[in-house]
Amino acid sequence: WDIGEGPSGPNSEIFYDRGPEYGNDENDPELYPGGENERYLEIWNLVFSQFNHNPDGTYTPLPKQNIDTGMGLERMASVVQNVPTNFDTDLFMPIIEKIEEFSSRKYKRPNEIDLNEIFGSEEDINTPFKVIADHIRTVAFAIGDGALPSNEGRGYVLRRLLRRAVRYAKQIGIEKPFMYKLVPTVGEIMVDFYPEVTEKHEFISRVIKNEEDRFHETLDGGLAILSEVIEKEKAAGLTVIPGADAFKLYDTYGFPIELTEEYAEEA
After folding, report:
1. Among candidates 182, 210, 211, 220, which has minimal Cα distance to 92?
2. Each residue's pLDDT tens digit, 123-180
3. d(Cα 262, Cα 131) in Å, to the nearest integer?
4. Is 180 within 8 Å of 205 (Cβ atoms)?
5. In terms of C-beta density within 10 A (0-12 exposed, 13-18 middle, 19 or more buried), how is residue 121 classed?
6. What is the distance of C-alpha 83 from the center of its chain?
7. What does the pLDDT read at residue 264?
């Protein structure tokens, strides 16, 4: 590994071959460990900080050398449990199953028949479930550690994650606040190692519900106006939302600019 000038050294990457069912095309130029494929899964990485890359292109040994190593917990779990993705492991499936209770759709399990493929639909039904499961886990842990949704810093990251999850929830028929009800499930999964989520689940749930309630009001009003703007621009043969309209949505109605961008890209 080498970032230019500065520390550098050897790098070892450990891959797991998941078998020919995940890829067996000998003519695929990406079918190798480290390539863009589903067969070879990197589960471990070892970075040796051994040399300093000098401005003149030479390398000299570092006075203090070390090894930085890391394993992907969810990736290792997917290998041990023999499932195709991190989200199909027991770290995420209980959350996904809970989401299904509020949704009009069902998550496609491994080896289930994909009716979308049979009927030629390109709809990706699993992505919303994955996004929501990932984001609620992140937000629950962060709030348990003392972070709160806000308009700046780390709080803004939480706010954006929650809002993004709410947006994806609409794609699977969830129109009301529900994410706060997922917090106990998140806590149960990790209680042996991170009991804080379970211990503080009432507070965490309350914070998330308040955030969901506020955003649903903003989202419903903003989407109605944004839809009118998009239709107007389409009718005029235009493909760009005027900056004045995007600013008005944000400044007057509190509709986030990033959501305007995402909806515009999909329109």
Report:
1. 182
2. 788 999 999 999 999 999 999 999 999 989 999 999 989 989 998 998 899 999 999 9
3. 15
4. yes
5. exposed
6. 19
7. 85
- Residue spans of alpha helices (H) in 56-182: 73-80, 93-100, 115-118, 126-144, 153-171
Q: How many CB atoms lie within 10 A of CB 163?
A: 22
> CA–CA separation, 259 vs 263, rounded Å?
6
E-strand spans in 29-132? Answer: 40-53, 59-71
- Token duo for residue 32: 């190798």
CA gyration radius, the chain: 23
pTM of the model: 0.82
Burial class (CB in 10 A: 0-12, 13-18, 19+), 115: exposed
Helix count (H) and strand count (E) of the chain?
10, 4
pLDDT tens for each residue of 9-48:
999 999 999 999 999 999 999 999 999 999 999 999 999 9
Residues 6+ apart with CB under 8 A from 2: 8, 53
- SS3 (DSSP) at 243: helix
